[in-house]
Amino acid sequence: MGFFESLPDGWTIYVWLFAGAAIIIAAIWWMRWGFKNEQFDEDIKYLVFNEADKDKMTSDDFAKAQAVMKAQMASRERHLAMQAAQQAAQKRS
To answer: Between vectors from CA 85 to CA 74 and to CA 81, what angle results, nearest 5°?
Structure first.
């Protein structure tokens, strides 16, 4: 307790400034991670549909759903290939 009492008045504002800066930096870092890892995708809503839902959708929406599904599957294959390559490189090390 003696240490904190020996500090000059107004020292707590620096603690709050540091905490606020740390929170902002962490939020920016997590958003950057999300964008790099394709976490912010507005078309994710189309992934719940399949061929059986064709009669419930307009032709444009169904075409969009099919295109989004194709793109997601390509992204999945790309990520799986990268993961397999990393695991193979680790086994060789």
So the answer is: 10
**DSSP code string of the chain:** -HHHHHSPTTTHHHHHHHHHHHHHHHHHHHHHHHHHTT---GGGGGGG--GGGGGGS-HHHHHHHHHHHHHHHHHHHHHHHHHHHHHHHHHH-
- Token pair 């964008």 in the structure block, residue: 35
Tell whether the torsion through CA atoms of 8, 14, 19 and 20 is positive or negative.
Answer: positive
pTM over cut 0.70: no
88: tokens are 């193979």
| 26-39 pLDDT, tens digit each | 999 999 999 888 78
Do 68 and 43 meet the contact criterion of CB atoms below 8 Å apart? yes
